[in-house]
Backbone:
């Protein structure tokens, strides 16, 4: 999994050295953070409300994506 905090830190270091970072890069990082929060919320809901721990585990492992790709 991509370490978004490390990526942000790397971008900040580059900007201190006057390296240009396209705004879309920062927007993509923000969208990734939001997607991770949404996935975490779905996983928590499946576990707590629906009592579907096995589905929650599959989502956490990314298995639901592998099925979509087939």
Residues:
């Amino acid at each position: 999994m991509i370490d978004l905090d490390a990526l942000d830190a790397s971008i900040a270091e580059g900007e201190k050295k006057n390296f240009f970072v396209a705004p879309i890069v920062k927007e993509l990082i923000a969208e990734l953070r939001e997607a991770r929060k949404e996935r975490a919320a779905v996983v928590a809901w499946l576990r707590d409300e629906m009592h579907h721990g096995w589905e929650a585990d599959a989502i956490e492992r990314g298995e639901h994506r592998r099925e979509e790709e087939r």
Remarks:
- Helices lie at 4-16, 23-48, 53-61, 63-69.
- Residues 4-69 form one domain.
